Amino acid sequence: MIVRSLKEIIGTERDVQAPTWHSRRFVLAKEGVGFSMHETVLYAGTETKMWYANHVEAVYCIEGEGELINHENGEKHRIEPGVMYLLNEHEHHTLRAHTDVKTVCVFNPPVTGREVHDENGVYPLLTEEDA
Question: How many Å apart are CA 27 and CA 4, to the nearest integer?
Fold first, then answer.
């Protein structure tokens, strides 16, 4: 059994910062459970363009308001507490954060904790062996 608190993640290698977001990674590939789980906050007034070409991601909003744009078909969706979206077809997308948007994210395959978006918004497919 693993029990981990946000307090013990903050300021460690599991606390990953980027210009438009920060992600606290509770479960990583090294735990060997087939997925990773993160708390991610996207900063108010920012836009983050993403494309998970190598991962499937489920995102559940627990706080804040924003807008999700699906670049595959132009659809826009309101993001607010209680809304989940699943990037099951590796969609190119943008999240516009109107306020700080706090989410819980699950990735498959799991991330290692070292990933950040590249110039295309993609996380590289890393394994623990790449460390």
Answer: 9
Please say whether the beta carbons of 103 and 116 come within 8 A. no
> Is 64 inside a domain boundary?
yes
The model's pLDDT over 55-104, given as tens digits with 9 standing for 90+, comes to 899 999 999 999 999 999 999 999 999 999 999 999 999 999 999 999 99
What pLDDT digit, counting tens, does each position of 101-124 carry?
Answer: 999 999 999 988 766 666 766 675
The structural domain count of the chain equals 1
